[in-house]
Amino acid sequence: MKRNIYLRTIPLEEAISRLVAELDRETLVGVERIGAEHAAGRITAEPVIARYSSPTYHSAAMDGIAVRAADTFAAREGSPVRLAPETDFVFVNTGHPLPAGFDAVVMIENVVMDGETATIETPVAPFAYVRRIGEDIVATEMILPRHRRVSAYDVGALLSCGAYEIEVFKQIRIRVIPTGDEVMDFTTHPAPGPGQVVESNSMLLSALADEWGMACTRVPPVRDDPDALAAALEDGLASDAHIVVIVAGSSAGSKDFTRATIERVGKVLVHGVAAMPGKPSLLGLAKGKLVVGAPGYPVSSVVCFERLLYPLACWISRTEPRRRPTVQAVLARSVPSRIGMVDFVRLSVGQVGKQYVGLPLSRGAGSISTMTKAQAVTQLPMEAEGLEAGTPVVAELLVDAGELARTLVCVGSHDNTLDTLADLLMRRTPAVRLASSHVGSMGGLIALRNGSSMMAGSHLFDPPTGDYNFPFLDKYLPGFPVLVVNLAIRHQGLMVAPGNPKGIAGVADLARDDVRFLNRQRGAGTRILLDHHLAKNGIAPAQVQGYDREEHTHMAVAVNVFSGAADCGLGVFAAARALGLDFVPLARERYDLIIPAAHRDDPKILAVLEVVGSDAFKTQVRDLGGYETDWTGREMQPGMGLPGEPAKA
Q1: Is 352 helix (H, G, I), strand (E, B) or coil?
Q2: Do residues 574 and 621 lie in contact, with contact meaning Cβ atoms separated by under 8 Å?
Q3: Does the pLDDT of residue 250 top 80, yes or no?
Q4: pLDDT category of residue 252 using cuts at 50, 70 and 90
Q5: Which pLDDT score is estimated for 364?
Q6: What does the pLDDT read at residue 2?
Q7: What is the pLDDT of residue 236?
Q8: Which of 34, 341, 498, 525 has the most CB atoms less than 10 A away?
Q9: Do residues 393 and 329 lie in contact, with contact meaning Cβ atoms separated by under 8 Å?
Q10: pLDDT at position 346, please?
């Protein structure tokens, strides 16, 4: 099958400009008349003119008595004016019409009643404490201009002035067509079969459309067949949709038919944008409508939806795109990028001291979990060849700004107990969100030293002393006061396939030619533990097939063994148990939380210490399997080693 060839990759702004120049929005989106009570979120097509004044009559602004102001001018303290009922005054409540012949209100607290006679010692000016006709709105004046998004507050004003119906642009309607032979429609199938993935991009777009105030209709997935795709596009163009989105098939593969499909009935204006992820995005016109080809990878699709489709839909509907709030954050670690491409990097963001710290998340275009974990996204400029750790960046917030102050940044070694800690912290009032970045124990110590983390998980074993973490703290953080609290004693070992088909009994078997190993990243405590045991067995790293293949978490190693991509990997028992793997025990080790003393009294750290010391946490950790909690929550001191295994002298 012939492959597509990308058109020239262009900046996002240029891509939008091309479509704006070609689209005729005047004929694409019509106008309708709707009740003002249903108008919130809609865009006015014409200026809205008040039919009535507000208020429609002179009304009392206070509880008191209506009077003629001239009758009160002689009133002085000690020399009151006496007013007769009905003739000189009438009682009124707030909002009551001002009785005929009266032009002011005296507040009730300034009135002394002598029988039926009202006595006042303070004069009032004409129309004092009176809401005049049209004080707020005058009939025939403009209430809302053209192209204004109607707010909930506007609805009240519209009804108050008699603008019961208004002209608005029709709601933007989107027809989304998911495609692919490999996608499974979750609405008709309970679980994916071999080689299938759950189709979620179309529903993600539908959810975004709801947030944007647009309507989205999804059709069932269409197979990778040119005629079937063309028929689906024709149906979409014949519908009442203003925008038709084809999900997947926009790239340059042999089964990517979106470009050819659009060209059968219209023209392609953009194929490829200078953005990562999102490069394969495609924009075209067909029968006067905007047609979008979104990439199949979820994060790429989101970039296409948010950075291309959304601003174009706003332009079509005459509304200003909503801007997310931003904060300045420093990067917790370096991030690479390609010159000539805008790079969107999702971040976990939390407050460390007086600054915000951004933890770059996985960069994969298919890493949909990063969208769940992220509190922000930053945009690396086209001219940048990556940014170094500590570089300030503008972080576009995906969450409420108040959440950042409640987010605890933890950088260091991965452990399954961190998920338990995170869940229990979120159950508190106020809740604390744990944002963790898994860069290994050494990476965690460096983050503490650089001030880009409030806490680090570490399990660094020092063979000469038999102790954990403290020898490394002395070496890499000298003179840096810290609090070291044990999270758990965990069991590390070789995770192998169920039934251990290759009979792997220990580290010595890693040197066998038929054993494929999967390692942890450099600086990880688990890797340091492995190197220690390889040295004890006289095995050089080069003898281990797969020593240079790396993953960043215990679960990532476990799933590779589960899938058959590796025969074994070193990790915690809980990870093996979670996926039903067999486990060959190797060592007990101490996993500690390293906390800078400067943050010891921070409310987020106090919450961590309270949770870690609780019976609920210890019970849940033990239930994971492969953990001991004898020292959990206890402050560690140099030379303590492990329970039952004193450190060397």
Answers
A1: strand
A2: no
A3: no
A4: low
A5: 67
A6: 47
A7: 96
A8: 525
A9: yes
A10: 92
Whose CA is closest to 353, among 611, 601, 593? 601
- Cα–Cα distances in Å, from 342 out to 103, 507, 540? 67, 45, 43
**Can you say how many angstroms the Cα of residue 118 is from the centroid of all Cα atoms in its chain?**
64
SS3 assignment for 372-435: HHCCEEEEECCCCCCECCCCEEEEEECCCCHHHHCEEEEEECCCCHHHHHHHHHHCCCCCCEEE
Determine the 3-state secondary structure of 72 from DSSP.
Answer: helix
Q: What is the pLDDT of residues 390-420, one digit of tens each?
A: 899 999 999 888 888 899 999 998 898 999 9
Per the model's pLDDT, the better-predicted residue between 103 and 381 turns out to be 103
CB-neighbour burial class of residue 430 (10 A; exposed 0-12, middle 13-18, buried 19+)? exposed
**Cα 472 to Cα 450: distance, rounded to the nearest angstrom:** 16
Backbone region of residue 152 per phi and psi (left: phi > 0; alpha: psi in -120 to 50; beta: other values): alpha
Contact of 105 with 124, CB cutoff 8 Å = yes
**Predicted TM-score of the model (pTM):** 0.81
Could you tell me the CA-to-CA distances from 436 to 359, 360, 422 in Å, in that order? Answer: 8, 10, 9
The amino acid present at 37, given as its one-letter code, is E
Burial label for 550, CB within 10 Å (0-12, 13-18, 19+), is middle
CA distance 194 to 40: 46
Residues with Cβ < 8 Å from 316, sequence gap 6 or more? 23, 25, 28, 29, 172, 242, 243, 290
pLDDT in tens, 528-577: 899 999 999 999 999 999 999 999 888 999 999 999 999 999 999 999 99
